[in-house]
Amino acid sequence: MNIQWYPGHMTKAKRAMKEDIKLIDLIIELVDARAPLSSRNPDIDELGKGKARLILLNKSDLADERVNEQWIAYFLGLGYQVVKMNCRSGAGLKQINGAVQEACKEKIERDRRRGILNRPVRAMVVGIPNVGKSTFINAFAGKSCAKTGNKPGVTKGNQWIRLNKSLELLDTPGILWPKFEDQEVGFKLAYIGSINDEILNKEELALGLLRFLMDRYPDVLKERYQAEAETPLMALEQIAKARACLQKGGEYDFGKAANLFFDDYRSGKLGRITLELPPVTAET
Predict the structure, then answer these.
(1) Which residues contact 146 (CB under 8 A, 6 or more apart)?
(2) What are the strands of the beta sheet with 26-32, ordered from one edge?
């Protein structure tokens, strides 16, 4: 199975971000805590050079807490501020203003030396599709945010939103699209539901995730499905058996079993599972 994802949008996305990036002080980047590298847009580091950075590890409640801490250390080591959060529940939202001030302290101090006081930080929120960008903006802004209108130099359609006295957000929905050469990245994004399931072979995908779980989280399948298998296919068969996924004639319905398996994984019913380790950790 070869996974591709909107490669045609890249040129337009890069051009839009190059223009918008000139207007902002800070890039707030949402990533999925279950796959923090795979869920990053590969162009942001290059396009965002010289800008303050804040990484939001979204859906951290679904990720392995021990590995969450490793990822926080990794991104801090790159010089980024980091907040782990869950946009839907609001966990972590209260930490963001402090992280913004810390990320932009050099800019704020520079303004102070120039006699510019209380100028809000201008931030852009970026993130690949389905990582939770819209949910974050809605949760963080709440109903009290005031749209400040288009400002000079802003591409028509972009909207500045004043979140509070110290932070303005440039809302640029849908301009960033990932492109990946490594198919492992594609599979991880498919596992977490960031790619439309309708274009995927769910049974083949399930075998890949089962193989990973058998290697890294072997107790999960036994606890959830009483499955102790030597191969991913045998594990999928045991899931089908445990969930009574049967077709006419008594044959196992592997498609239905795969769908149930992914529902369990994505909702956290299998436990807190992270699909990748930080590069340094992975090498040691």
Answers:
(1) 161, 162
(2) 81-84, 52-58, 26-32, 121-126, 167-171, 159-164, 146-147
What pLDDT is stored for residue 156 in this prediction? 47
pLDDT tens-digit profile of 33-47? 999 999 988 778 888
Alpha helices in 104-193 (DSSP H): 105-113, 133-141, 183-191
List the structure tokens of 145: 């945010």
The Cα–Cα gap between 101 and 89 comes to 23
Give 180's pLDDT tier (boundaries 50, 70, 90): low
- Encoding tokens for residue 92? 């972590």
Q: Which residue has the tokens 């847009």?
A: 41
Q: Is 170 helix (H, G, I), strand (E, B) or coil?
A: strand
Confidence of residue 172 (pLDDT cuts 50, 70, 90): low
| Predicted confidence band of residue 149 (pLDDT cuts 50, 70, 90) | very low
* Among 215, 188, 207, 194, CA closest to 254: 207
Q: Is 3 helix (H, G, I), strand (E, B) or coil?
A: coil
169 strand-pairing partners = 123, 161
The pLDDT, as a whole number, for residue 141 is 81
Tokens of 63: 């990720």
The H or E element containing residue 44 is helix 44-47
- Give residue 154's pLDDT: 38
CB burial class (10 A; 0-12, 13-18, 19+) of residue 108?
Answer: buried
- Residue 267 burial (10 A CB sphere; 0-12, 13-18, 19+): exposed
